[in-house]
Amino acid sequence: MGRIIYLDHASTTPVDSRVLKKMKPYFTGLFANPATRWTSSISQKVDEAVEEARKNVAALINALPEEVIFTSGGTESDNAALKGVAFANRNRGNEIITTPIEHEAVLKVAERLQDFGFVIKYVPVDSEGFVDPDDVKKLITPKTILVSIMHANNEIGTIEPVREIGAVCRERGVFFHTDAVQTVAHIPVDVEQMNIDLLSLSSHKFYGPKGVGALYIRKDVQIVPYMDGGGQEQGFRSGTLNSTGIIGLGEAAKLGKEEQEERESCIKEFRDAFLKKILEEIPAVYLNGPNDDRRLPGNISIVIQGIRNEPLLVALNEKGIIAGGGSACSAGKKNPSHVLEAIGVPEEDLFSVIRITIGKDNKLEDIDFIVENIKEITNQLRALSPFWEE
Amino acid sequence: MYPKIIQEHFTYPKNVGRMKNPTATGSFSMPDLAKAVFYFLIEEGIVKDIKYQIAGCPFAIAVCSILSEYAKGKNVKELKNITLDTLGLFFEIPTEKEECINLSLNAFLDGVKSA
Ligand SMILES: Cc1ncc(COP(=O)(O)O)c(C=O)c1O
What is the mean pLDDT of residues A314-341? Predict the structure, then answer.
Protein backbone atom coordinates (compact mmCIF):
# COMPACT_ATOMS: atom_id res chain seq x y z
CA MET A 1 0.00 0.00 0.00
CA GLY A 2 1.15 3.52 -0.74
CA ARG A 3 1.11 6.51 1.53
CA ILE A 4 -1.90 6.85 3.79
CA ILE A 5 -3.45 10.18 4.72
CA TYR A 6 -5.37 9.44 7.88
CA LEU A 7 -8.26 11.80 8.65
CA ASP A 8 -10.33 9.81 11.14
CA HIS A 9 -8.71 10.79 14.44
CA ALA A 10 -12.02 11.10 16.30
CA SER A 11 -12.41 7.39 15.72
CA THR A 12 -8.96 6.53 16.98
CA THR A 13 -5.37 7.76 16.82
CA PRO A 14 -2.05 5.99 16.30
CA VAL A 15 0.08 5.36 19.37
CA ASP A 16 2.78 8.04 19.60
CA SER A 17 6.25 6.49 19.24
CA ARG A 18 7.27 8.04 22.58
CA VAL A 19 4.29 6.37 24.25
CA LEU A 20 5.21 3.01 22.75
CA LYS A 21 8.79 3.42 23.95
CA LYS A 22 7.56 4.09 27.47
CA MET A 23 5.29 1.02 27.40
CA LYS A 24 7.70 -1.52 25.98
CA PRO A 25 9.58 -2.61 29.14
CA TYR A 26 6.28 -3.34 30.88
CA PHE A 27 5.26 -6.11 28.48
CA THR A 28 8.09 -8.44 29.40
CA GLY A 29 10.72 -7.61 32.06
CA LEU A 30 8.46 -5.40 34.16
CA PHE A 31 5.41 -7.60 33.87
CA ALA A 32 4.58 -8.19 37.53
CA ASN A 33 1.25 -7.48 39.15
CA PRO A 34 1.38 -4.03 40.76
CA ALA A 35 -0.79 -5.34 43.61
CA THR A 36 2.09 -7.39 45.03
CA ARG A 37 4.30 -4.35 45.49
CA TRP A 38 5.11 -5.11 49.14
CA THR A 39 6.74 -8.43 48.34
CA SER A 40 8.21 -8.02 44.89
CA SER A 41 10.63 -5.46 43.62
CA ILE A 42 9.41 -5.75 40.02
CA SER A 43 5.86 -5.17 41.22
CA GLN A 44 7.02 -2.13 43.07
CA LYS A 45 8.52 -0.69 39.89
CA VAL A 46 5.31 -1.34 37.98
CA ASP A 47 3.27 0.17 40.79
CA GLU A 48 5.43 3.29 40.76
CA ALA A 49 4.97 3.65 37.01
CA VAL A 50 1.20 3.21 37.36
CA GLU A 51 1.08 5.89 40.04
CA GLU A 52 3.17 8.21 37.87
CA ALA A 53 0.62 7.64 35.11
CA ARG A 54 -2.18 8.47 37.54
CA LYS A 55 -0.45 11.76 38.40
CA ASN A 56 -0.07 12.61 34.72
CA VAL A 57 -3.72 11.91 33.98
CA ALA A 58 -4.80 13.89 37.04
CA ALA A 59 -2.59 16.83 36.04
CA LEU A 60 -4.08 16.87 32.55
CA ILE A 61 -7.56 17.56 33.94
CA ASN A 62 -6.53 19.38 37.15
CA ALA A 63 -7.70 16.60 39.47
CA LEU A 64 -6.11 14.88 42.44
CA PRO A 65 -4.42 11.55 41.61
CA GLU A 66 -6.63 9.67 44.09
CA GLU A 67 -9.69 10.88 42.16
CA VAL A 68 -8.58 9.05 39.00
CA ILE A 69 -9.71 5.44 38.45
CA PHE A 70 -8.32 3.48 35.52
CA THR A 71 -10.82 1.68 33.29
CA SER A 72 -10.86 -0.08 29.94
CA GLY A 73 -11.81 3.10 28.06
CA GLY A 74 -14.51 5.63 27.41
CA THR A 75 -17.35 3.14 27.25
CA GLU A 76 -16.52 1.60 30.60
CA SER A 77 -16.04 5.00 32.22
CA ASP A 78 -19.45 6.17 31.00
CA ASN A 79 -21.09 2.94 32.20
CA ALA A 80 -19.39 3.14 35.59
CA ALA A 81 -20.34 6.79 36.05
CA LEU A 82 -24.01 6.53 35.12
CA LYS A 83 -24.79 3.16 36.68
CA GLY A 84 -22.59 3.85 39.68
CA VAL A 85 -24.19 7.18 40.56
CA ALA A 86 -27.70 5.97 39.74
CA PHE A 87 -27.55 2.96 42.04
CA ALA A 88 -25.74 4.77 44.85
CA ASN A 89 -28.30 7.58 44.93
CA ARG A 90 -31.52 5.68 44.36
CA ASN A 91 -32.82 6.77 47.78
CA ARG A 92 -32.48 10.44 46.77
CA GLY A 93 -34.28 10.23 43.47
CA ASN A 94 -34.54 8.48 40.14
CA GLU A 95 -34.23 11.17 37.48
CA ILE A 96 -31.26 11.51 35.16
CA ILE A 97 -30.81 14.30 32.63
CA THR A 98 -28.83 13.90 29.43
CA THR A 99 -28.93 15.01 25.77
CA PRO A 100 -30.04 13.32 22.57
CA ILE A 101 -26.57 13.76 21.06
CA GLU A 102 -24.49 11.74 23.53
CA HIS A 103 -22.35 8.84 22.41
CA GLU A 104 -24.06 5.44 22.59
CA ALA A 105 -21.89 4.70 25.64
CA VAL A 106 -24.13 7.15 27.52
CA LEU A 107 -27.42 6.84 25.60
CA LYS A 108 -27.63 3.06 25.80
CA VAL A 109 -26.72 3.08 29.49
CA ALA A 110 -29.49 5.62 30.12
CA GLU A 111 -31.94 3.38 28.25
CA ARG A 112 -30.82 0.41 30.32
CA LEU A 113 -31.35 2.34 33.54
CA GLN A 114 -34.99 2.91 32.54
CA ASP A 115 -35.51 -0.83 32.95
CA PHE A 116 -34.46 -0.39 36.57
CA GLY A 117 -36.95 2.36 37.34
CA PHE A 118 -34.90 5.41 36.44
CA VAL A 119 -36.46 8.21 34.43
CA ILE A 120 -34.38 9.79 31.68
CA LYS A 121 -35.01 13.37 30.61
CA TYR A 122 -33.41 14.78 27.47
CA VAL A 123 -32.35 18.43 27.23
CA PRO A 124 -32.89 19.64 23.67
CA VAL A 125 -30.04 20.90 21.51
CA ASP A 126 -30.20 23.70 18.95
CA SER A 127 -29.36 23.47 15.24
CA GLU A 128 -25.62 23.62 16.01
CA GLY A 129 -25.86 21.02 18.74
CA PHE A 130 -25.69 23.34 21.75
CA VAL A 131 -27.38 22.74 25.07
CA ASP A 132 -28.72 25.82 26.87
CA PRO A 133 -27.77 25.65 30.58
CA ASP A 134 -31.10 27.31 31.40
CA ASP A 135 -32.88 24.34 29.84
CA VAL A 136 -30.91 22.03 32.13
CA LYS A 137 -31.97 24.15 35.10
CA LYS A 138 -35.62 23.87 34.09
CA LEU A 139 -35.47 20.08 33.92
CA ILE A 140 -33.90 19.61 37.35
CA THR A 141 -36.39 18.55 40.05
CA PRO A 142 -35.84 17.40 43.64
CA LYS A 143 -35.73 13.85 42.24
CA THR A 144 -32.84 14.55 39.85
CA ILE A 145 -29.64 12.75 40.88
CA LEU A 146 -27.38 13.10 37.86
CA VAL A 147 -26.81 15.24 34.78
CA SER A 148 -24.63 13.71 32.06
CA ILE A 149 -23.71 16.01 29.18
CA MET A 150 -20.75 15.50 26.89
CA HIS A 151 -17.94 18.03 26.73
CA ALA A 152 -17.76 17.89 22.94
CA ASN A 153 -19.66 15.91 20.37
CA ASN A 154 -17.76 13.26 18.42
CA GLU A 155 -19.70 13.71 15.19
CA ILE A 156 -20.16 17.44 14.75
CA GLY A 157 -17.54 18.86 17.13
CA THR A 158 -19.84 21.09 19.19
CA ILE A 159 -18.22 22.07 22.51
CA GLU A 160 -20.92 22.29 25.17
CA PRO A 161 -20.93 25.03 27.82
CA VAL A 162 -20.00 22.53 30.55
CA ARG A 163 -18.76 25.11 33.01
CA GLU A 164 -22.16 26.81 33.07
CA ILE A 165 -23.99 23.48 33.12
CA GLY A 166 -21.74 22.34 35.98
CA ALA A 167 -22.53 25.53 37.89
CA VAL A 168 -26.27 24.91 37.50
CA CYS A 169 -25.85 21.35 38.81
CA ARG A 170 -23.75 22.43 41.75
CA GLU A 171 -26.26 25.11 42.70
CA ARG A 172 -29.00 22.48 42.71
CA GLY A 173 -26.95 19.77 44.43
CA VAL A 174 -27.03 17.38 41.47
CA PHE A 175 -23.98 15.39 40.37
CA PHE A 176 -22.58 16.34 36.96
CA HIS A 177 -20.86 13.84 34.69
CA THR A 178 -19.24 14.78 31.39
CA ASP A 179 -18.02 12.49 28.63
CA ALA A 180 -14.78 14.27 27.71
CA VAL A 181 -13.49 11.51 25.45
CA GLN A 182 -13.21 13.92 22.50
CA THR A 183 -11.71 16.86 24.39
CA VAL A 184 -9.10 15.67 26.88
CA ALA A 185 -5.63 16.58 25.58
CA HIS A 186 -7.24 18.40 22.61
CA ILE A 187 -8.59 21.49 24.36
CA PRO A 188 -8.12 22.60 27.98
CA VAL A 189 -10.10 20.53 30.48
CA ASP A 190 -10.19 21.55 34.14
CA VAL A 191 -12.54 19.71 36.49
CA GLU A 192 -12.30 22.45 39.12
CA GLN A 193 -12.98 25.38 36.87
CA MET A 194 -15.68 23.50 34.97
CA ASN A 195 -17.59 22.29 38.05
CA ILE A 196 -17.31 18.64 37.02
CA ASP A 197 -18.02 15.77 39.44
CA LEU A 198 -17.32 12.85 37.12
CA LEU A 199 -15.45 12.78 33.82
CA SER A 200 -14.77 10.03 31.27
CA LEU A 201 -11.64 9.95 29.14
CA SER A 202 -10.13 7.47 26.73
CA SER A 203 -6.46 6.92 25.89
CA HIS A 204 -6.76 5.94 22.24
CA LYS A 205 -8.26 9.31 21.29
CA PHE A 206 -5.02 11.09 22.15
CA TYR A 207 -2.18 8.91 20.88
CA GLY A 208 -2.30 6.36 23.68
CA PRO A 209 -3.09 2.65 23.39
CA LYS A 210 -6.60 1.27 22.92
CA GLY A 211 -8.58 -0.44 25.68
CA VAL A 212 -7.60 1.88 28.50
CA GLY A 213 -9.13 5.02 29.91
CA ALA A 214 -10.02 6.69 33.15
CA LEU A 215 -12.92 7.94 35.18
CA TYR A 216 -12.47 11.00 37.34
CA ILE A 217 -14.63 10.79 40.47
CA ARG A 218 -14.69 13.82 42.73
CA LYS A 219 -14.06 12.84 46.34
CA ASP A 220 -17.55 13.55 47.65
CA VAL A 221 -19.46 11.67 44.94
CA GLN A 222 -21.38 8.60 46.07
CA ILE A 223 -20.93 5.79 43.60
CA VAL A 224 -21.52 2.04 43.62
CA PRO A 225 -18.60 0.13 42.11
CA TYR A 226 -19.96 -1.98 39.31
CA MET A 227 -16.92 -4.24 38.99
CA ASP A 228 -16.50 -6.18 42.23
CA GLY A 229 -13.60 -8.47 42.96
CA GLY A 230 -10.12 -8.05 44.37
CA GLY A 231 -10.70 -4.43 45.37
CA GLN A 232 -8.18 -2.70 43.13
CA GLU A 233 -8.53 1.03 42.39
CA GLN A 234 -9.77 1.76 45.92
CA GLY A 235 -12.48 -0.83 45.40
CA PHE A 236 -14.05 1.18 42.59
CA ARG A 237 -12.81 -1.06 39.82
CA SER A 238 -11.59 -4.53 40.64
CA GLY A 239 -9.37 -6.53 38.34
CA THR A 240 -5.62 -6.78 37.82
CA LEU A 241 -4.53 -3.47 36.37
CA ASN A 242 -3.76 -3.19 32.68
CA SER A 243 -0.44 -1.77 33.76
CA THR A 244 1.13 -1.55 30.30
CA GLY A 245 -1.89 0.23 28.90
CA ILE A 246 -2.15 2.54 31.91
CA ILE A 247 1.52 3.48 31.61
CA GLY A 248 0.91 4.26 27.94
CA LEU A 249 -2.11 6.37 28.84
CA GLY A 250 -0.01 8.22 31.42
CA GLU A 251 2.68 9.05 28.88
CA ALA A 252 0.07 10.15 26.33
CA ALA A 253 -1.44 12.38 29.03
CA LYS A 254 1.93 13.91 29.85
CA LEU A 255 2.67 14.64 26.18
CA GLY A 256 -0.88 15.84 25.71
CA LYS A 257 -0.50 18.41 28.45
CA GLU A 258 2.90 19.60 27.24
CA GLU A 259 1.92 19.83 23.59
CA GLN A 260 -1.79 20.66 23.76
CA GLU A 261 -1.55 24.31 22.74
CA GLU A 262 0.86 23.69 19.91
CA ARG A 263 -1.18 20.78 18.54
CA GLU A 264 -4.38 22.78 18.81
CA SER A 265 -3.04 25.71 16.81
CA CYS A 266 -1.60 23.51 14.01
CA ILE A 267 -4.79 21.49 13.80
CA LYS A 268 -6.94 24.63 13.67
CA GLU A 269 -4.83 26.01 10.86
CA PHE A 270 -5.37 22.80 8.89
CA ARG A 271 -9.08 22.81 9.64
CA ASP A 272 -9.65 26.40 8.56
CA ALA A 273 -7.62 26.07 5.36
CA PHE A 274 -9.31 22.80 4.48
CA LEU A 275 -12.80 24.10 5.12
CA LYS A 276 -12.19 27.23 3.09
CA LYS A 277 -10.91 25.23 0.16
CA ILE A 278 -13.60 22.59 0.11
CA LEU A 279 -16.39 25.16 0.36
CA GLU A 280 -14.82 27.08 -2.52
CA GLU A 281 -14.15 24.07 -4.72
CA ILE A 282 -17.31 22.01 -4.42
CA PRO A 283 -20.82 23.44 -4.80
CA ALA A 284 -23.68 22.41 -2.51
CA VAL A 285 -21.50 21.60 0.48
CA TYR A 286 -22.23 22.85 3.99
CA LEU A 287 -20.83 22.48 7.49
CA ASN A 288 -22.66 20.79 10.37
CA GLY A 289 -22.24 22.31 13.82
CA PRO A 290 -20.79 25.68 14.78
CA ASN A 291 -18.23 27.56 12.73
CA ASP A 292 -16.40 29.36 15.54
CA ASP A 293 -14.28 28.72 18.63
CA ARG A 294 -16.99 26.59 20.13
CA ARG A 295 -16.06 23.81 17.72
CA LEU A 296 -13.44 21.09 18.34
CA PRO A 297 -10.23 22.16 16.58
CA GLY A 298 -9.89 18.91 14.67
CA ASN A 299 -13.47 18.31 13.55
CA ILE A 300 -14.99 18.98 10.13
CA SER A 301 -18.42 17.51 9.46
CA ILE A 302 -19.83 18.38 6.07
CA VAL A 303 -22.84 17.53 3.96
CA ILE A 304 -22.04 16.95 0.28
CA GLN A 305 -25.47 17.15 -1.29
CA GLY A 306 -26.65 14.70 -3.92
CA ILE A 307 -24.33 11.82 -3.02
CA ARG A 308 -24.11 9.06 -0.41
CA ASN A 309 -21.14 9.01 1.89
CA GLU A 310 -20.25 5.35 1.68
CA PRO A 311 -19.10 5.19 -1.96
CA LEU A 312 -17.18 8.43 -1.39
CA LEU A 313 -15.37 6.98 1.62
CA VAL A 314 -14.60 3.75 -0.22
CA ALA A 315 -13.26 5.60 -3.27
CA LEU A 316 -11.18 7.91 -1.07
CA ASN A 317 -9.75 4.90 0.70
CA GLU A 318 -8.59 3.65 -2.68
CA LYS A 319 -6.60 6.87 -3.05
CA GLY A 320 -5.05 6.35 0.37
CA ILE A 321 -7.28 8.88 2.13
CA ILE A 322 -9.11 7.62 5.19
CA ALA A 323 -12.04 9.72 6.36
CA GLY A 324 -15.08 8.91 8.47
CA GLY A 325 -18.78 9.47 8.51
CA GLY A 326 -20.50 6.37 7.31
CA SER A 327 -21.55 3.51 9.43
CA ALA A 328 -21.34 0.29 7.42
CA CYS A 329 -24.13 0.20 4.90
CA SER A 330 -26.87 -2.32 4.79
CA ALA A 331 -29.05 -0.16 2.58
CA GLY A 332 -32.59 -0.10 3.95
CA LYS A 333 -31.64 -1.01 7.48
CA LYS A 334 -29.07 1.72 7.82
CA ASN A 335 -30.04 4.10 10.59
CA PRO A 336 -29.31 7.78 10.23
CA SER A 337 -27.06 9.38 12.85
CA HIS A 338 -29.03 10.36 15.96
CA VAL A 339 -26.82 13.46 16.26
CA LEU A 340 -27.53 14.73 12.75
CA GLU A 341 -31.23 14.06 13.27
CA ALA A 342 -31.21 15.92 16.59
CA ILE A 343 -29.73 19.07 15.01
CA GLY A 344 -32.28 18.93 12.22
CA VAL A 345 -30.18 17.99 9.19
CA PRO A 346 -32.77 17.49 6.39
CA GLU A 347 -33.71 13.88 5.73
CA GLU A 348 -32.26 13.90 2.21
CA ASP A 349 -28.84 14.98 3.53
CA LEU A 350 -28.54 12.53 6.41
CA PHE A 351 -26.47 10.01 4.45
CA SER A 352 -24.41 12.63 2.63
CA VAL A 353 -22.19 13.52 5.57
CA ILE A 354 -18.48 12.93 5.83
CA ARG A 355 -16.42 13.58 8.91
CA ILE A 356 -12.81 14.65 8.60
CA THR A 357 -11.03 14.63 11.94
CA ILE A 358 -7.53 16.05 11.95
CA GLY A 359 -4.57 14.86 13.98
CA LYS A 360 -1.27 16.36 15.06
CA ASP A 361 0.63 14.71 12.22
CA ASN A 362 -1.53 15.84 9.30
CA LYS A 363 0.30 18.10 6.85
CA LEU A 364 -1.02 21.35 5.39
CA GLU A 365 0.61 20.43 2.06
CA ASP A 366 -1.83 17.54 1.69
CA ILE A 367 -4.95 19.70 1.69
CA ASP A 368 -4.93 20.30 -2.08
CA PHE A 369 -4.55 16.60 -2.83
CA ILE A 370 -7.35 15.65 -0.43
CA VAL A 371 -9.80 18.27 -1.68
CA GLU A 372 -9.01 17.49 -5.34
CA ASN A 373 -9.82 13.84 -4.73
CA ILE A 374 -13.02 14.57 -2.84
CA LYS A 375 -14.04 16.89 -5.68
CA GLU A 376 -13.32 14.39 -8.44
CA ILE A 377 -15.14 11.53 -6.71
CA THR A 378 -18.05 13.80 -5.80
CA ASN A 379 -18.42 14.80 -9.46
CA GLN A 380 -18.45 11.15 -10.51
CA LEU A 381 -21.00 10.20 -7.87
CA ARG A 382 -23.18 13.19 -8.68
CA ALA A 383 -23.15 12.17 -12.34
CA LEU A 384 -24.55 8.84 -11.19
CA SER A 385 -27.06 10.21 -8.73
CA PRO A 386 -30.80 10.42 -9.40
CA PHE A 387 -30.91 13.22 -6.82
CA TRP A 388 -28.44 15.54 -8.49
CA GLU A 389 -29.34 18.08 -11.17
CA GLU A 390 -26.57 20.24 -12.60
CA MET B 1 -12.52 -5.80 0.89
CA TYR B 2 -14.79 -6.11 -2.18
CA PRO B 3 -14.91 -8.90 -4.81
CA LYS B 4 -12.78 -7.92 -7.81
CA ILE B 5 -15.68 -7.52 -10.23
CA ILE B 6 -17.49 -5.25 -7.75
CA GLN B 7 -14.35 -3.19 -7.28
CA GLU B 8 -13.94 -2.78 -11.07
CA HIS B 9 -17.54 -1.84 -11.78
CA PHE B 10 -17.62 0.52 -8.78
CA THR B 11 -14.47 2.31 -9.90
CA TYR B 12 -15.46 2.43 -13.60
CA PRO B 13 -19.23 2.02 -13.79
CA LYS B 14 -20.50 1.45 -17.36
CA ASN B 15 -23.61 2.93 -19.04
CA VAL B 16 -24.07 5.69 -16.46
CA GLY B 17 -26.69 8.42 -16.81
CA ARG B 18 -30.18 9.25 -18.02
CA MET B 19 -31.79 8.35 -21.34
CA LYS B 20 -33.77 10.84 -23.45
CA ASN B 21 -36.52 8.63 -24.85
CA PRO B 22 -36.59 5.31 -23.02
CA THR B 23 -39.22 2.73 -23.94
CA ALA B 24 -39.27 1.46 -20.35
CA THR B 25 -38.10 2.69 -16.96
CA GLY B 26 -37.91 1.13 -13.54
CA SER B 27 -37.04 2.44 -10.11
CA PHE B 28 -36.71 1.36 -6.52
CA SER B 29 -36.09 3.21 -3.25
CA MET B 30 -35.11 2.22 0.25
CA PRO B 31 -36.51 3.70 3.47
CA ASP B 32 -33.13 5.42 3.96
CA LEU B 33 -33.60 7.13 0.57
CA ALA B 34 -31.06 5.07 -1.35
CA LYS B 35 -32.48 4.94 -4.88
CA ALA B 36 -31.86 3.34 -8.27
CA VAL B 37 -33.48 4.18 -11.64
CA PHE B 38 -33.08 2.19 -14.89
CA TYR B 39 -33.85 3.37 -18.45
CA PHE B 40 -34.31 0.90 -21.30
CA LEU B 41 -34.47 1.26 -25.05
CA ILE B 42 -36.16 -1.91 -26.25
CA GLU B 43 -36.79 -2.72 -29.91
CA GLU B 44 -38.64 -5.86 -30.92
CA GLY B 45 -38.11 -7.36 -27.50
CA ILE B 46 -34.35 -6.78 -27.54
CA VAL B 47 -32.51 -4.39 -25.20
CA LYS B 48 -30.75 -1.96 -27.56
CA ASP B 49 -29.57 0.46 -24.92
CA ILE B 50 -29.67 0.76 -21.15
CA LYS B 51 -28.74 3.47 -18.65
CA TYR B 52 -29.22 4.04 -14.91
CA GLN B 53 -28.84 6.43 -12.03
CA ILE B 54 -28.01 5.32 -8.54
CA ALA B 55 -27.46 6.78 -5.09
CA GLY B 56 -26.36 3.82 -3.04
CA CYS B 57 -23.39 1.96 -1.66
CA PRO B 58 -20.50 0.63 -3.77
CA PHE B 59 -22.17 -2.77 -4.12
CA ALA B 60 -25.40 -1.23 -5.37
CA ILE B 61 -23.48 0.91 -7.89
CA ALA B 62 -21.45 -2.02 -9.18
CA VAL B 63 -24.54 -4.21 -9.53
CA CYS B 64 -26.25 -1.55 -11.68
CA SER B 65 -23.24 -1.55 -13.94
CA ILE B 66 -23.01 -5.35 -14.12
CA LEU B 67 -26.74 -5.67 -14.87
CA SER B 68 -26.54 -3.02 -17.57
CA GLU B 69 -23.73 -4.86 -19.35
CA TYR B 70 -25.49 -8.19 -18.95
CA ALA B 71 -28.77 -6.93 -20.35
CA LYS B 72 -27.48 -5.35 -23.56
CA GLY B 73 -28.57 -7.28 -26.64
CA LYS B 74 -30.64 -9.74 -24.62
CA ASN B 75 -34.31 -10.52 -24.92
CA VAL B 76 -36.40 -8.83 -22.20
CA LYS B 77 -38.30 -12.03 -21.53
CA GLU B 78 -35.10 -13.71 -20.51
CA LEU B 79 -34.20 -10.77 -18.23
CA LYS B 80 -37.42 -11.05 -16.26
CA ASN B 81 -36.10 -14.21 -14.67
CA ILE B 82 -32.98 -12.69 -13.15
CA THR B 83 -32.69 -13.23 -9.39
CA LEU B 84 -30.11 -12.75 -6.70
CA ASP B 85 -28.85 -16.24 -7.62
CA THR B 86 -28.14 -15.10 -11.17
CA LEU B 87 -25.88 -12.40 -9.75
CA GLY B 88 -24.36 -15.01 -7.49
CA LEU B 89 -22.82 -16.50 -10.63
CA PHE B 90 -20.72 -13.33 -11.03
CA PHE B 91 -19.55 -12.91 -7.43
CA GLU B 92 -20.10 -14.22 -3.95
CA ILE B 93 -22.95 -12.34 -2.29
CA PRO B 94 -22.29 -11.36 1.34
CA THR B 95 -25.51 -11.71 3.36
CA GLU B 96 -25.22 -8.23 4.83
CA LYS B 97 -25.04 -6.74 1.32
CA GLU B 98 -28.14 -8.52 -0.03
CA GLU B 99 -30.35 -5.50 0.54
CA CYS B 100 -27.95 -3.20 -1.31
CA ILE B 101 -27.85 -5.59 -4.24
CA ASN B 102 -31.63 -5.94 -4.19
CA LEU B 103 -31.97 -2.17 -4.47
CA SER B 104 -30.39 -2.27 -7.92
CA LEU B 105 -31.92 -5.57 -8.92
CA ASN B 106 -35.45 -4.46 -7.99
CA ALA B 107 -35.11 -1.24 -9.97
CA PHE B 108 -33.87 -3.27 -12.96
CA LEU B 109 -36.70 -5.82 -12.69
CA ASP B 110 -39.27 -3.05 -12.28
CA GLY B 111 -38.09 -1.79 -15.69
CA VAL B 112 -38.00 -5.09 -17.57
CA LYS B 113 -41.37 -6.15 -16.17
CA SER B 114 -42.97 -2.94 -17.41
CA ALA B 115 -41.52 -3.44 -20.90
C1 LIG C 1 -17.77 10.89 22.90
C2 LIG C 1 -17.33 9.48 23.04
N3 LIG C 1 -17.64 8.78 24.14
C4 LIG C 1 -17.24 7.51 24.32
C5 LIG C 1 -16.52 6.84 23.37
C6 LIG C 1 -16.11 5.43 23.61
O7 LIG C 1 -14.76 5.34 23.98
P8 LIG C 1 -13.98 3.95 23.92
O9 LIG C 1 -13.78 3.63 22.48
O10 LIG C 1 -12.69 4.21 24.62
O11 LIG C 1 -14.80 2.93 24.63
C12 LIG C 1 -16.17 7.53 22.19
C13 LIG C 1 -15.37 6.86 21.14
O14 LIG C 1 -15.84 6.46 20.10
C15 LIG C 1 -16.58 8.87 22.03
O16 LIG C 1 -16.29 9.56 20.92
Answer: 79
- Using a CB-CB cut-off of 8 Å, the residues of chain A touching B11 are 315, 318
How far is it, in rounded angstroms, from Cα A6 to Cα A20?
19
A18-62 pLDDT, tens digit each = 999 999 999 999 999 999 888 889 999 999 999 999 999 999 999
Residue B2: the pLDDT is 86
| Secondary structure of residue B17 in the 3-state scheme | coil
Judge contact between A354 and A324, C-beta under 8 A: yes
| Phi, psi for B71 (deg, rounded to 5) | -80, -25
Contact (Cβ atoms closer than 8 angstroms) between residue A203 and residue A216: no
Are residues A239 and A322 both part of a single domain?
no
Q: Kindly report, residue by residue over A346-356, the tens digit of the pLDDT.
A: 999 999 999 99
Rounded to whole angstroms, how far apart are CA atoms A390 and A373?
Answer: 20
Closest-lying ligand 1 atom to the alpha carbon of residue A150: 1
User: Domains of chain B (ranges plus CATH)?
Assistant: 4-114 (3.90.1010.10)
Ligand 1 neighbourhood includes A260 CB (under 6 angstroms): no
Kindly state whether residues A89 and A201 are assigned to the same domain: yes
Q: A308: domain CATH number?
A: 3.90.1150.10
Neighbouring CB atoms inside 10 A of A378's CB total 26
Evaluate whether A201 touches A61 at the Cβ level (below 8 Å).
yes
Contact criterion met (CB below 8 Å) for A109 and A81: no
Residue after which a domain boundary falls, among A228, A256, A284: A256
- Report the DSSP pairing between strands A175-179 and A198-202: parallel
CA distance A146 to A176: 6
Do B32 and A307 lie within an 8 Å CB cutoff? no
Is A209 close to ligand 1, i.e. is its CB under 6 Å away? no
